[in-house]
Amino acid sequence: MERKTRVAVVVLFVVLSIVSLMPAQGFAQQKVYELRYANMFPAPHKNSLMCEAWCREVEKRTNGRVKISYFPGGTLTPPAQTYDSITTGITDIGMSVFNYTRGKFPVMDAINQPMGYKSAYLVTKLANEFYKKFKPKELDEVKVMYLHGHGPGIMHTKSR
């Protein structure tokens, strides 16, 4: 076989090999990430319903590449253990309350002091700005997605 013919055959073989692999790459399945989300709110609670809707929205916007199994009402992990369950890999996402683990988050606990918040909006804004400014090392093991608070609460008691 002549040298030019051999080179042409090799080039043709390489081109056909590449072209034959292209459709396989196009149809190759993309990796699916499966995450677990632990939340303290009972399933029918409005916050829980919003969290569940968020999980569905993430799946929709990622074309099914990120699937989040949602566990409301402390069914995967109790609220006081949510942070630790994230750091140990029991769950990937969690929502709880800093006050449920007194002493574990001393810097963030400053937000929990009675300051007379007039609205959930104000305390949420304050908590996020505080976190952004001070970046407490006590939360270095996790990625904080957001912080939120509630407005004035009412305490109920049987005696005065």
Walkthrough of the structure:
There is one protein chain. This protein has a three-stranded parallel sheet with strand order 2-1-3. It starts with a helix and ends in a 26-residue tail after the last helix. The longest helix has 25 residues. Helix content is 39%, strand content 10%. The chain folds into two domains: 68 residues; 59 residues, no CATH class. Helix 2 links the parallel strand 1 and strand 2. By secondary structure, the protein is of the alpha/beta class. The chain has four helices and three strands.
Topology:
Elements: H1 3-27, E1 33-39, H2 46-61, E2 66-71, H3 82-87, E3 93-95, H4 120-134
Parallel strand pairs: 1-2, 1-3
Short description:
By secondary structure, the chain is α/β, with parallel strands linked by helices.
Strand order of the largest sheet: 2-1-3
**Order of SSEs:** HEHEHEH
Work out the strand percent.
5-15%
Mean pLDDT: 84
Number of alpha- plus pi-helical segments: 4
Keywords:
160 residues, alpha/beta, 2 domains, three-stranded parallel β-sheet
